[in-house]
Amino acid sequence: MDAKSRIKLMQTARWVGFNRAQLAVDELERRYHYPSCARMLCMLLYGDSGMGKTMILEKMGGQHPSSYEERRGITLRPVVSVQMPPSPDERRFYTRMLEVLGAPYSIRDQIGALEGRALDLLKKIGTKLLFIDDAFRAFIVAYGKLLPLRKASCFGEPAMIQALIKHSSGVTGRVTWLLGRAAERAIEDGREQIIETDIERVSERLRIAAA
Ligand SMILES: Nc1ncnc2c1ncn2[C@@H]1O[C@H](COP(=O)(O)OP(=O)(O)OP(=O)(O)O)[C@@H](O)[C@H]1O
Ligand SMILES: [Mg+2]
User: Fold this and answer.
1) What's the pTM value of the predicted model, to 2 decimals?
2) Which of 132, 178, 197, 200 is the most buried (most CB within 10 A)?
3) Where are the alpha helices (DSSP H) in the chain?
4) Domain boundaries, the chain
């Protein structure tokens, strides 16, 4: 292989089936073949940033690629992956899903209509696995690692994520502000770590200052 092809190969993501990752893929594969029922099983993939969650989803996508069905003139998509918007409200979730599916919508559409259209489409294109990839959490964990605190904080914990969503409405600038202020306080009082109640306290102070 020449140098150019080898460099190209280096730049392309390749799958390495290490233990945990392969376990997740095997479990997802098992669920993929489950018969349909009213309430399908869910699975939460939990791990620090960079641990390979998105890679697992991409691997599943690669194993079940889209295909064009000539007879009905539609593209079947057995696996669909939706990047969760920073502020995960229902409207944004369904509009993001419709964008991924390439379906039109209007900002005036009611949530119920958006939901109905998204679910209809998923059925029509034969989707068996729907991945919701949570970028908000990934951002918080990555940003948390940049804070110069001496002790580790649980930035990826559900309680922390919920506190940050609640007090920032998912606005990135507010998230970084809240984390920055909480980190300052943690350094000043020597605790050197942030917990969810710190986020609440910092946010409360901001509200008092703004009043
Ligand atoms: N199984 C794997 N095989 C090969 N490379 C991998 C694997 N898992 C992870 N990597 C490498 O690690 C990088 C980060 O993985 P990935 O983006 O999937 O992490 P993540 O868990 O989704 O992180 P985040 O929470 O920040 O979204 C990938 O771009 C890839 O280069
Ligand atoms: Mg990811």
Assistant:
1) 0.72
2) 178
3) 3-11, 19-32, 53-63, 90-100, 111-124, 135-146, 158-168, 172-188, 196-210
4) 14-135, 147-210
